[in-house]
Amino acid sequence: MNEVVPSLPEVDHQRVVFSDGLMLDCGVTITPLTVAYRTYGTLNAARSNAVLVCHALTGDQYLAETQPLTGKPGWWEKVVGPGLPIDTDRFFVICANVLGGCMGSSGPREEMTDAEGRGLGRPWGIDFPSITIRDMVRAQKRLVEHLGIERLLAVVGGSMGGMQALQWAATYPEAVFACAPIATAAHHSAQNIAFHEVGRAAIHADPDWCGGAYWKEGRLPAQGLSVARMVAHITYLSESALTRKFGRRLQGAKALTFLEDVFAVESYLRHQGSTFIRRFDANSYLTITRAMDYFDLAADHGGDLSLAFQGTPTRFFVASFSSDWLFPTAESRAVTRALNRAAARVSFVELNSDKGHDAFLLDEPEFHAALGGFLRGAADAVGV
Amino acid sequence: MNEVVPSLPEVDHQRVVFSDGLMLDCGVTITPLTVAYRTYGTLNAARSNAVLVCHALTGDQYLAETQPLTGKPGWWEKVVGPGLPIDTDRFFVICANVLGGCMGSSGPREEMTDAEGRGLGRPWGIDFPSITIRDMVRAQKRLVEHLGIERLLAVVGGSMGGMQALQWAATYPEAVFACAPIATAAHHSAQNIAFHEVGRAAIHADPDWCGGAYWKEGRLPAQGLSVARMVAHITYLSESALTRKFGRRLQGAKALTFLEDVFAVESYLRHQGSTFIRRFDANSYLTITRAMDYFDLAADHGGDLSLAFQGTPTRFFVASFSSDWLFPTAESRAVTRALNRAAARVSFVELNSDKGHDAFLLDEPEFHAALGGFLRGAADAVGV
């Protein structure tokens, strides 16, 4: 882990800049607001076939094409494409880098600006203001309007993307015909906050973090960010998946020698940590995990989640995975119950999988069939 | 977390020194072997009333008296004492600091010695050899013999203490009349190894660890050790206990301001981290977590756990806690099934508790009653 890590390469992302900026929940206005995004498929003449996909904590807008930093396939190439569940032959798919992210949208890595939008010649770094899931959704709404779309056919997202989908339906019900929150919850639990705090503590403890000013010192808190990724990655998998994939196998040895033995699961985790630092920014990680921790849709509505959706015209598809212990099925049931209380049109499915939280990113045919069916039904209803 | 942390204070522990040393599983002989220990109650004339309690990863020998570094009550004062489940009016209770520990037994903090047992004027540090749970048990066996005890009435332990209890029964069946492995498993799972590896990575990443030679530099890897404790601590609790104790409450504020907000669960975790560094040694943490990871009693017996206990004369009491996800009930069931296959006398109970793995340390009357009953039954059978 002591190798030299260069700063993240610059990428010429596709962006739109809103010079009037965005007022955040914390009271600060970011001027201008920049949103980096990608689209797939073609917007129809009625502008009625747009599907917004919201990405998770460490995701990005490159959901169905090569990720420019890693050179790896997009994170949802199994789901988004011609003939796939989110069918780009039929739908116009939009995905934006979240506010606070590190792939081109306004965030800690972008140039800091003053209240008049003048560049200050340095990145925001740790001075980037606190943001919320609602702020992320507000920024996406600006993009959607910019693209000339009044109502989205659907908003779809897993994990933190599901939080955004729920927030979209709560904040802009008339702009969301269908909503698919997947492997998510209407609030972040105490345990989830605790795991995030471990990751943040590891970043804060890295002397190369430099109190957030590593950009100034030409350093990167690689080891702290790596530890943060390692602990998070455990929560993305299930115990049974870890046992199935690794068990107690040793890396490069057949029997314990009690000397330099390394278990395969350790080697895998270290690899996860060391590759993550080549594609993610530590201050973005701090900013976005914080936004997730803040998320509590019921609290925003007097403690009753159903009030977030009262009289909603949106139809919902709620999905969870049986072995997901980060966003367990009980959380999806709670969302479904609240939607039922709000007399919303909602279907809920718990999908059997031993792959844990990560299942929403993996090859899960039953999930893909259910999501595809929901979207086809919505498209048929709208006449797309 | 940037406060100055002194090195751990020296304590004049009660110890026994075996000048002939101990040959370890890794092939190295530690000379001499030092075992620090405490006893409670009185050994009877027949030397038949001795109960050995084995402590967990970060426990110590001060189970029923004030811990000398923290000034806090012993970790099992609710269980060990006059009239308590491990009744010191009836039993002679022994507890030894594990080999590799940092409370006086041979371990990374103690003076390094050469093959002839000559002190080298520096601590072992990272040069302390790899140890196993079996090595810990071998060291305890020397202590028990030193105390003139041929057969223990019982060996009792939770978590890593339960691993030692199982190893005792497997290695020295004639020396263990009764065995109570609690909240434990016969091997460390892939997920548990993964969590340990996160803690070790955090320690390794701390520049104050100095490649293990922090003792030489007058430094302590306080931040790395603190992060290791934080992540471990989450695994000791259940999600429901975290929700019940902290939920989404804020520390020192009533409503989110999105500025300097800290959730109560974060404040609690940070406190756990910052107090731990005042009582535990980082190199000991590395050594002992490794020993736990190595533990696999079935693998030591050709893959069949029942072969570890074939023909055993020992009676067993296996206990798990319903909300323990670090050592889930399934692991205790597997131990019980193996004991049944070995035709051992065994009772198993899953105790209802929402307190997670830590329940074995807490006020759990049903557990205390069951353990007390098991020990009384054993004592009656032996005629103590």
From TrEMBL, chains A, B:
Source taxonomy: Bacteria, Pseudomonadati, Pseudomonadota, Alphaproteobacteria, Acetobacterales
Residue sites binding substrate per the record: 229, 358
A biological process term (GO) from this entry: methionine biosynthetic process
UniProt KW Transferase keyword: yes
Family, per entry: Belongs to the AB hydrolase superfamily. MetX family.
Principal subcellular localization: cytoplasm
InterPro entries (alphabetical): AB_hydrolase_1, AB_hydrolase_fold, HAT_MetX-like
Pathway: Amino-acid biosynthesis; L-methionine biosynthesis via de novo pathway; O-acetyl-L-homoserine from L-homoserine: step 1/1
Function: Transfers an acetyl group from acetyl-CoA to L-homoserine, forming acetyl-L-homoserine.
Subunit record text: Homodimer.
Stretches of the chain forming a coiled coil according to its record: none
Keyword Transferase listed: yes
The entry's keywords: Acyltransferase, Amino-acid biosynthesis, Cytoplasm, Methionine biosynthesis, Transferase
Gene Ontology MF annotations: homoserine O-acetyltransferase activity
GO cellular component, as recorded: cytoplasm
Location within or outside the cell: Cytoplasm
UniProt-listed Enzyme Commission number(s): 2.3.1.31
The AB hydrolase-1 domain, residue ranges: 49-362
Record's protein name: Homoserine O-acetyltransferase
Catalytic site positions: 159 (nucleophile), 324, 357
Pfam families linked to this entry: Abhydrolase_1
The reaction(s) this protein catalyses: L-homoserine + acetyl-CoA = O-acetyl-L-homoserine + CoA
UniProt xrefs under PANTHER family: HOMOSERINE O-ACETYLTRANSFERASE (PTHR32268)
Listed HAMAP family: MetX_acyltransf
